[in-house]
Design goal:
The structure holds two protein chains of two kinds. Chain A is an all-alpha fold. Chain A has three domains: 1-84, NADH-ubiquinone/plastoquinone oxidoreductase chain 6, subunit NuoJ (Four Helix Bundle (Hemerythrin (Met), subunit A)); 128-172, no CATH class; 201-256, no CATH class. In chain A, 62% of the residues lie in helices and 0% in strands. The N and C termini of chain A lie far apart (95 Å). By secondary structure, chain B is an all-alpha fold. Chain B is built from 15 helices and two strands. In chain B, strand 1 (107-112) and strand 2 (115-119) form a beta hairpin. In chain B, helix 3 packs antiparallel against helix 4 (127-148) and helix 8 (205-218) runs antiparallel to helix 10 (243-268). The termini of chain B are far apart. Classes of the chains: A mainly alpha, B mainly alpha. Chains A and B meet through helix 2, helix 3 and helix 8 of A and helix 4 and helix 5 of B.
């Protein structure tokens, strides 16, 4: 199992390439949301690489955990930065972008050269024992987590619980009054000066039934409540053509 | 992948793998067409209508024809849409829906063109986790569709659905834990063989109920279909989608229904194992028969989905989230604790049945005493409510409460209106002449 077969090689170059593409996309996209999506692509491809490296549990956990994490990132981008935010193209530090690119390429060359040279002729050892000694990959991880590394595992979980509790405490709002029931809310709605129920809908006539056409009250005057506020503010309300109304009424033989 | 225990998987010849992939694909598409028709017929029957009955026998070809029509419709893409993401969102949704079926077992080992092979595309030690992972990728389709449409209602629908699916995935994942503990494995085929004498739905009933509830939330189906609540969000995340892209979302929703039903069947109803009276027949679990039992079980779940949709009104969003976080998740945690404790007591510590029964009796006694106190608290709260209600009812009826006319509360007396003819004084004067 230690020698690399053709299938593994294909998967490596395909997923590895996609992962690098995702990482580049993360840095190069202008929109924060697009960056978050590129991260998701990288994470999923890393998971595929884990699975081909005989770590199916790690791979699956990677997908479950990181898709959730990237989703959170996505939501935070939407909430904090806004739905349509994008980077500005102005450099705050002059020449910073060029220096950053040179340094990044240099680091990449160093890493590839160093690690690549160090790992070309390495033969993986002990993979079958690690995955086989307890009857499988999952069982092996479980035994390690709950025997040799129990303390580290528990400390990590305590840390995570502390973080979750901290978030809850920070976001907690003390309620001074009991929560208003549905009954109380509906009563408050009636007592308030606003309109208690649905506002009247816009006018529906033979020739106009758009939202900019006011409904007519019984006395023939237009109802201000039947028009959305923004339309009124923009002055986009269609005036009632009283002449037309009378004409139509006379056609129907209605008495006025 | 790993050696011995999954020996029957991963050794199929390439043409058999292709055949299985094709069979699963065709089956899922056909099941979708059937489920749409079945849903429309059942809902119609429950609403005293007839439903589609014109195209083909019993109207069976109706959804096929609707599909053709949908695909040939004009596609409208909003100007504000983010094209790349807008295009890929339905693809993610539909692909994820199909992918999850790779690990669902349909039956035992059968012979296909002379090759002995299990009726399952593949299996590996963590295949249930694989289904969870694919489901969480599927959420992306919906969220991205909502975001990339460049429109308000789809965005709200997409956000709702991400919150909903993440919350209900936790309860869903926890309901699996007890199954893993009892089966001793996370692979679907081993979970089924572990249910040979008795189904997990019987011994792990709370897990089963939690899973069934959260699977409805996970698939965005009524009464948990808040991401596409048409009264509030037009169509939710797919408002701005039309033609084939909308058809992909439609397909994904119905395949997801089949997937979660198939997973429920696998984890709790013994998968392809024959149900009790049939299981007495010796060859019930051999050959191609199990495919039939599997299909019947999945169809029962799909019927429940349809039944729920026809019966229950949609939940309010806050009630829905409260139910997920404050009822389902704590209930699953407590149930996992009980299951784990019971397993440890039985397996590691020498406990006799007598001692277990005594422990159970103690727990029940504690619960009874606790419920007595809880009932007392409930009674006091109810009494306080009754007092408030009586106080409200004793108030005089104000027909114009704060400016708007209101009807009397139960127990209140309506007073006569101020209309002159109804005024008792005026009436008296009229009588007196």
């Amino acid at each position: 199992m230690t020698e690399v077969n053709l299938g593994e090689e294909i998967v490596f170059w395909f997923s590895g390439g996609l992962a690098v593409l995702g990482a580049l996309g993360l840095i190069l996209s202008r929109k924060a949301v697009h960056s978050a999506l590129w991260v998701a692509l990288t994470m999923i491809n890393l998971a595929v690489l884990y699975i081909t490296n005989s770590a199916p549990f790690l791979g699956m956990v990677q997908v479950v955990v990181y898709t959730g994490a990237v989703m959170m990132l996505f939501l935070f981008v939407l909430m904090v930065v806004g739905v349509d935010s994008s980077d500005s193209l102005i450099e705050t530090l002059k020449g910073q972008r060029l220096v950053a690119i040179v340094l990044a390429v240099g680091l990449a060359i160093l890493l590839v050269a160093g690690i690549g040279a160090g790992l070309t002729d390495v033969v993986p050892v002990g993979l079958d024992e690690a995955n086989g000694v307890d009857g499988g990959n999952v069982q092996g991880i479980a035994r390690l987590l709950f025997t040799d590394y129990l303390v580290a595992f528990e400390v990590t979980s305590a840390l995570l619980i502390t973080a979750a509790l901290g978030a809850m405490v920070l976001a907690h709002r003390e309620r001074w009054l009991p929560r208003a029931s549905q009954e109380e809310l509906s009563k408050a709605r009636f007592i308030s000066t606003g309109h208690p129920g649905n506002l009247p809908s816009s006018g529906t006539y033979a020739r106009h039934n758009a939202v900019d056409t006011p409904a007519l009250l019984p006395d023939g005057s237009p109802s201000a409540q039947s028009i959305p506020g923004p339309l009124v503010a923009r002055g986009d309300v269609r005036p009632v053509d009283h002449h037309e109304v009378e004409q139509i009424e006379s056609l129907g033989g209605g008495s006025k | 992948m790993t050696g011995s225990q999954f020996g029957v998987f991963g050794i199929d010849p390439w043409w058999l793998v292709l055949l299985k992939v094709l069979a699963i694909f065709v089956m899922l598409v056909l099941l979708t067409l059937f489920t749409i028709w079945w849903e429309r017929r059942v809902v119609s029957r429950m609403q005293n209508r007839i439903g589609p009955n014109r195209v083909g026998p019993f109207g069976l070809l109706q959804s096929l024809m609707d599909g053709f029509k949908l695909a040939l419709k004009e596609e409208i893409i909003p100007k504000a849409a983010h094209l790349g993401v807008y295009w890929i969102a339905p693809v993610i949704s539909a692909t994820a829906a199909f992918l999850a079926f790779a690990v669902i077992p349909f039956g035992p080992t059968v012979s296909i063109f002379g090759v002995e092979t299990p009726l399952q595309l593949t299996d590996f030690p963590v295949s249930v986790l694989y289904v969870l992972a694919i489901a969480s990728i599927g959420i992306y389709g919906i969220v991205l569709a909502g975001w990339s449409s460049g429109s308000t209602y789809p965005l709200l629908g997409g956000l709702r659905s991400s919150a909903q699916m993440i919350s209900y995935e936790i309860a869903m994942g926890m309901s699996f834990v007890a199954v893993f503990l009892y089966a001793g494995s996370m692979s679907t085929s081993e979970i089924i063989t572990a249910q040979e004498p008795i189904w997990f739905a019987v011994i792990l009933l709370p897990s089963f109920l939690i899973y069934v509830t959260s699977m409805v939330g996970e698939t965005n189906r009524a009464p948990f279909d808040l991401p596409e609540a048409e009264g509030e969000l037009v169509g939710g995340f797919h408002t701005e989608y039309s033609s084939l892209k909308f058809a992909l979302f439609f397909l994904a929703e119905y395949i997801n229904m089949v997937t979660v039903s198939a997973l429920a069947t696998t984890l709790f109803l013994g998968g392809w194992l024959a149900p009790w009276p049939i299981s007495l027949w010796e060859s019930a679990n051999t050959g191609w028969w199990p495919l039939l039992w599997w299909l019947i079980k999945v169809q029962i779940f799909i019927f429940v989905f349809i039944w729920l949709r026809a019966t229950l009104p949609r939940l309010r969003y806050d009630q829905f989230m409260k139910f997920g976080w404050k009822v389902l998740i704590p209930a699953s945690i407590i149930w996992i604790m009980i299951v784990a404790a019971a397993r440890v007591l039985r397996n590691d510590i020498e406990f006799s049945n007598r001692q277990l029964l005594i422990a159970g009796a103690v727990v029940i006694a504690v619960l009874l005493i606790g419920s007595w106190f809880a009932q007392g608290a409930l009674d006091r709260r109810e009494a306080a409510r009754k007092l408030i209600r009586e106080e409200i009812e004793s108030r005089p009826y104000d027909p114009m409460a704060g400016g708007f006319p209101v009807p009397p509360m139960p127990g209140q007396q309506a007073v006569l209106t101020t209309r002159r003819s109804n005024n008792p004084v005026v009436q008296q004067e009229a009588i007196d002449g």
